[in-house]
Amino acid sequence: MVSPLAALPSDAYVPILKGKAAELGAVSSAPKDRLVPLLEFIDPDKAPGLLVKSWVTEKDAVWVQLLNFEGVSDSDFGTQITAVFDQVRGKVCAVPVVTTTEEPATLAAIAGVIAKDQRGAVLRIDVEDLIDGDVDTAADITSTLDQLDISPSQVALVVDGGTLTGPPTIQATVAERALSAITLNDWLSVVLSFSAFPGELGTVAAKSSVTVIPRTDAVSFTAVRNNTEHRLIYGDYAVGTPTYGAAPFAPIPNIRYAAGGDWQIHRAKERKSPSPQYVALAQAIVSATYYDGASFSPGDQQINDVATGAGGPGNATTHLRAATSRHLHLVLSRLATLGAP
């Protein structure tokens, strides 16, 4: 069990995931003893129902960030935040996520949630803000916590390097500089996250191919962790990205499979006739040396079912769910057995 006001164990994992069907489906079937997902929701009306359905436990913490995606007024957004936490209270152990750029009504609403639930909070800060000489991040942090009436010892800090680019050595160097700007011992836990999955598969994976993409987010994290005495908790964006955007059409069928320190990207030929292509992709994965078997995760089971005909061919959403499920289980397994993501 991951209690909201307890420091995260060293082998905990914080995936930053969108509150959408595929990601939530993967979370719902994942083990919750060391998994603490940070879930982003852009639709406050749908968030409570989705959250209750995907995180069916009142004991294990889940971190919830509501994004003002539609740009509603601050007062209205604050009301929406209060309503979401009111609706999940008693059903989900939800901990609010806050940034240092929130407007007054938003901060007031989150402060109300913190006071009522007594589960602390999560503060999410971009690496870029910590290294920006024009931003007084230390003052922003102090001001935010003062308005929330909470101390760092009750707050999990997420240092987010999701938008960093370049090789792992560069990302690690930038992240180390950012971490040096914070007194790390003050916080309940410190999570360091990176993002490595490409936004557009077509730019890195050719049609009718199997492309190997390194999990540079894990490499960057390990480099930073090995160079600091403070205990850092691993976070990433799984097989997603920090950005939002809807494709105007269904993608060319693909299956993303996390294998060790890489992703194996199986990509089909064309958009038309996706069903037989998904079956062929699944069959290629289950016959590969890196396939861990149907029992490893619900995602592996789904791929096996598609390959053997025990289930339907699936679609882009169900295969993203399988890929995310596989990734969550792989990272948890590697942290538990290898001590590294």
Characteristic terms for this protein:
alpha/beta, TIM Barrel, eight-stranded parallel beta barrel, three-stranded antiparallel β-sheet, 38% helix
Q: In a nutshell, what does this entry contain?
A:
With 341 residues, this protein is of the alpha/beta class. Helix content is 38%, strand content 18%.
Can you put this structure into words, describing what you see?
The chain has one domain (13-337): TIM Barrel. The protein is globular, with a radius of gyration of 20 Å. With 341 residues, it is an alpha/beta fold. The longest helix is centred in the last third of the chain and has 22 residues, at 316-337. The protein has an eight-stranded parallel barrel, surrounded by five helices. Helix 4 (104-117) links the parallel strand 4 and strand 5 (121-126). 38% of the residues lie in helices and 18% in strands. The mean pLDDT is 94.
User: How would you classify the helix and strand content by structural class?
Assistant: alpha/beta
Radius of gyration: 20 Å
**What does the main sheet amount to?**
8 strands, parallel, barrel
Q: Tell me the span between the first and last alpha carbons.
A: 20 Å
What number is the mean pLDDT? 94
* pLDDT < 50 runs, ≥5 residues: none
Seen as an oligomer or otherwise, the chain set is single chain
Tally of individual domains = 1
Give the helices and strands, then pairings.
Elements: E1 13-18, H1 21-28, E2 38-41, H2 47-54, E3 61-66, H3 74-88, E4 93-98, H4 104-117, E5 121-126, H5 127-131, H6 137-148, E6 155-161, H7 168-179, E7 189-194, E8 209-214, H8 216-225, E9 233-236, E10 254-259, E11 262-267, H9 274-286, H10 298-308, H11 316-337
Parallel strand pairs: 1-2, 1-9, 2-3, 3-4, 4-5, 5-6, 6-7, 7-9
Antiparallel strand pairs: 8-11, 10-11
